Amino acid sequence: MRIAFSCNPALGHLLPLLPLANAARDAGHEIVFLAGASLAGPIERAGFQRVDAGPPDLPSAFERVPERAGLTGRRLAAATWRGAFGGVIAPEMAAGLLAHARGWRPDLVVHDDSELGTWVGAERLGIPHVSLQATAWRGAGVRLAAEPLGRLRASLGLPADPDLARWHRHGYLTTRPPALYNPDDPMPSTTVPIRPVALDELSGGTPAWLPRDPGGPPRVGVTLGTILPGRLDTMTAILDGLERLDVDVAATVGPGLDPAAIGPRSPRTHVERYVPMSLLLPTCDALVFHAGSGTMLAALAIGLPLVLLPVAADQPENADRCVAAGVGIALEPDGRAADDVERATRMLLEEPRWRAAAARVRDEIAAMPAPAAVLPALEALAAGGADGRLAG
Length: 392
What we know:
It is a single chain. The protein is of the alpha/beta class. The protein folds into two domains: 2-196 and 368-387, Rossmann fold (3-Layer(aba) Sandwich); 219-366, Rossmann fold, CATH 3.40.50.2000. It has helices at residues 11-14, 18-26, 40-45, 58-62, 73-100, 118-125, 140-155, 231-242, 277-280, 293-300, 315-325, 338-350, 352-367, 371-384, and strands at residues 2-6, 30-35, 49-52, 108-112, 129-132, 172-174, 191-193, 219-223, 248-252, 269-272, 286-289, 306-308, 328-330. The strands form two sheets. The protein has a seven-stranded parallel beta sheet with strand order 3-2-1-4-5-6-7, sandwiched between helices. A six-stranded parallel beta sheet has the order 10-9-8-11-12-13, with helices on both faces. The longest helix has 28 residues, at 73-100. It starts with a strand and ends in an 8-residue tail after the last helix.
């Protein structure tokens, strides 16, 4: 079987796809990744062929959507979904798939859930397509994407689909455990669970301080992702608050921010540009972070309670779901001073209910089917052709 995996040009969109791609490769299937140039290194290190498709990175795509300027939170997420993912990236990803299919026709397309173009290209090719969840499910996104994807369908000679009913008709692979489902915004009827696997050791090394003294104080991890606005001020406030507690602190600031910009810190505070979360999180007792999907699932998979500081994209929805599940405390933008961070983190460390709730979610994640266990359903889907449906 030939499978084309595709994603938006950012590491957080690639990583959720890799465990399933690895399982498919181990089973003997042919794999290619369609992605922008910024993912060339990670895809090559994972051992896969990359086909250039779409813009090189997300910032360059975002620059082409001027209506994003000045927006925050859910308004920014909506403009990004409609203008960037639907209007800018989707046509280029569809074109990339169709061009590659002239010489290498896939039997199946698996795309990250916010990469909106290759499934339309798959419709043009008459092959099944499946979305794998890399971001929070937001049913409103379907409606937001209807207009730009309608234009794309028309340009490819496809019939109109104003409700985008064909988007998830073959299948939707959710990486969310039941505790994080939103009962007011149900996922598609074709939803099948797949266990999220933290696979992020494709860049960066491990610092000497990472191993932890078993008899030492608690450790709190801190990360704000790589493109969060105002990260320097936010990170400084977080560290100021945490250093008032009897804890060790392990913070990552991302490739675009120099750890030296944070200024002098306590000897018990370690600041790095990058440490793989799959290595850092098992050494922690709690996590303060930006509510990004991959980091959230990696932390909950080992039962860590969370302090969430959502800003944009799917972060507000992730924070809502974590609060509803009782696994964390969300701090709003106007409540993220050092005092707020100190108070929230102290609660997580001192009150056992947060860790107990996180442990319940950890057990739910462990019970989800591994990627290799989902693969037979994908094989059957591909064998069934354009009218098939993923069976859980």
